[in-house]
Amino acid sequence: MPLACYLANTAWQASNYFGWRRFRKASQNLAETQRDYLLQLLQRHRDTEYGQKYGFASIRSPRAFQERLPITDYSAYEVAVRKIRRGAENILTIDPVSRLEPTSGTTSGTRLIPYSSTLRDEFQRGISPWIYNLYDHYPSLKGGSAYWAVSPHQQSLSEVGDIIPIGFAEDAEYLGGVEKWLVQQIMAVPAQVGGILDMDTFRYTVLRFLLARGDLRLISVWNPSYLYLLLEPLRDWWPLLLADLRNGGISFPQPPPDSLAKMLSTLALPQKRRADELAALDVANGDGWCEQIWPELTLISCWGDAWAAQTLPVLQSLFPSVVIQPKGLLATEAFVTFPLISENQLLGHVLSPKSHFFEFEDLQGGELQLAHELEIGKNYAVIVTTGGGLYRYRLNDRVEVCGYYRQLPLLKFLGKVAGVSDLFGEKLGEDHLRRIIASAFKIYVIDESAFYFIAAEEREGGVGYTLFYSGDLNGQAYQLAEHVEAELGSNFHYRHCRNLGQLLSFRVHQVSARAEDNYLRYKANGAHLTTVKRRLLETGKPTADWIQILN
Asked: Most buried residue, 96, 248, 366, 380, by most Cβ within 10 Å?
C-alpha cells in the first residue's frame, strides 16, 4: 500500500508541475494576466442570456467591465439558477452546468452555485500550484495515504422537475481527469462514507478506516473543530474499533442503507497486525496520544484565521509534532488564495492569479481596486468574476494585504464582512436572520418594538447563538427558540455545524428593561451613544459575558 501511495502521490505532484509553472509566470505580470483572463471570459460567454443583457461582446477593458456591470449578490442569480436546474442552457455560461453545488446563504438559507467544467478548471489552477509547492517542501507526504474532508455530507436538495444534479457525489469531483483518479488512489477513507447521514455512524466509520492506515501522512479538513470532534469519541470506541479492525467489518452505530453498509463492510478488510500494534498503545492519558496512532502524519491543512484560530491549540496538543498549515481562502463559489511555502517556511496566502478575475473594495474608503493595485496594510472585501457564471459577485469575505510575492498580494482572511457570522463555517447572515425573527414574532405574537439582538454566546458545552430580548415573551421562549432553530436549519452549513456538534442549539434569553441602555454604553466604549450602530446580529467573538453586560 505505501508503494502504491508513493507512486500515486508522485504522479499527482508531477501532473501539477505545469500548473506551478503557469502560476510562477503569472506572478511576474499580474495586471496582464487578470486582464487577459477577463476579456477571454467575456468573449467566451458573450452569447449567453447574461452576456447579451450586459453587452459582453463590446467590453474591451477591465474598467469598461466595471462601468457596464453592477456588483452582485446571490439574489441577482436566483431566477437564472431556477432556469438552469430545470435544464435551460446558455443562461450564465456557454458551458453546460454539470452540478449545482449547495452552500449557505447570507440572505437566504441555501444557495445553489452552478458548476461547469470551466469553473472546475479555474479551481484546478489554484489547486495545482498549491499541491506542487506543498509536496515539494514536504516530500514525506508522498510516502503514504491522506484524508480529505472537503464538502459536507448532505441530504438531497433536489426537487421534482430538476434536470441538473445537486451536490457532488464525492470530494474528488472537484478535480478532473487524471488528477481525480490519482487522488482516489491515496484516500484513506472511501468516498462512499460521505453517503452516511447519521453523525455517530459517520464518525465511527471514518475512524474505522483511518485506524487501518498507519501510513497516514496528510489530513485536510476545513475547520479544525471538525477534526477535534471527529477524534473526540475515539477513546470511548477504542475496544470496539480494534475488534472491527482485527476481525474485519464495521459495527455501525446506526446501520446505513443495506447496499451502502455492504459496500463499506467489504472494503473494511481484517488487519490483525495493525490491531495488535494499536492495542499496545497507551491512549488513555497525556497530550499527543493521537501521534502514537498515526506516527507518520506530517501535516494537517485546516482553517487557521478568524475564529478558527481558537481551536488550533487544541489540535496542536493532539499532534504536537505535526505541521498545521492554515488553508487559503476558498469558497464554493471561488478559489481565492492558497498557502505558499518559500525557503521552507510559510510565506503567506497568495492570490491565485489564473483562477478568476478579482476586484477588491477598500473597507475604509469604499474605492474599488484591481488585484495589482492593492496596498499593504489595507483591508478589502473580495469581489469575483468566475467561469461558473458569477459576475462581479460579492463573496462577503474580508482580507488584509500582508505583503507581496513578486507581483501577487499575500492576503490574510479576517472574517466575514459586517452582517455575517462565520465561526465554524455556518455563514449566518443578518438579513436571513431578520426575516426568520420577523416571521417568528408574528407567529408567537411577540412585540417587535422591544429591544433585542442576536449574538454567539459561550455556554456550558460550547458555543451557540442566542436571542437576547427585553420584552414580554408570553412564556414562549422555548417555542420561539425551537422555531428559529428549525428555520436556521434551511441554512445548509448551519445545519451541518449543528449536526457535527460545532454549534449548540439556538436559544432565547430574556433580559432586563435596562438591557438596551447597557448595550449602548458597552458598544460606545466611552464615545457618544449616538455613534453606536445597532445590529440585529453581533458578529464579534463569542463571549460568556453578554448577560452580565446587559443586566
From this structure: 380
- Phi, psi values for residue 327, rounded to 5°: -70, 165
Which ranges of 27-74 does DSSP label H, i.e. alpha helix? 30-44, 49-53, 62-68
DSSP strand pairing (216-220 vs 299-302): parallel
Residue 300, CB-side half-sphere exposure with 13 Å CA sphere: 25
Beta bridge partners of 507: 466
Which of 171-175, 221-225, 350-354 bottoms out in mean pLDDT, i.e. has the lowest? 171-175
Residue 457 confidence (pLDDT): 92
Cα(152)–Cα(147) distance, rounded to whole angstroms?
Answer: 14
Question: Average pLDDT for residues 426-433, to the nearest whole number?
Answer: 82
Q: Report how far residue 267's alpha carbon sits from residue 244's, in angstroms, rounded to the nearest whole number.
A: 12
Q: What is the DSSP annotation of 242-266?
A: HHHHHH-S---SS---HHHHHHHHH
CA distances 365 to 360, 361, 362, 372, Å, are 12, 8, 6, 18
What is the CB neighbour count within 10 angstroms for residue 232?
12
pLDDT, position 93? 96
C-alpha 61/C-alpha 39 separation (Å) is 7
CB 147 within 8 A of CB 172: no
Residue 279 parent element (H or E)? helix 272-279
In tens, the pLDDT along 58-74 reads 999 999 999 999 999 89
Three-state secondary structure call for residue 118: helix
Q: Output the nine-digit C-alpha cell for 254.
A: 446506526
Per-residue pLDDT of 86-135, as tens digits, reads 999 999 999 999 888 887 655 455 788 999 999 999 999 999 999 999 99
Rounded distance, CA 45 to CA 357, Å? Answer: 14
Phi, psi of 191 (to 5 degrees): -60, -25
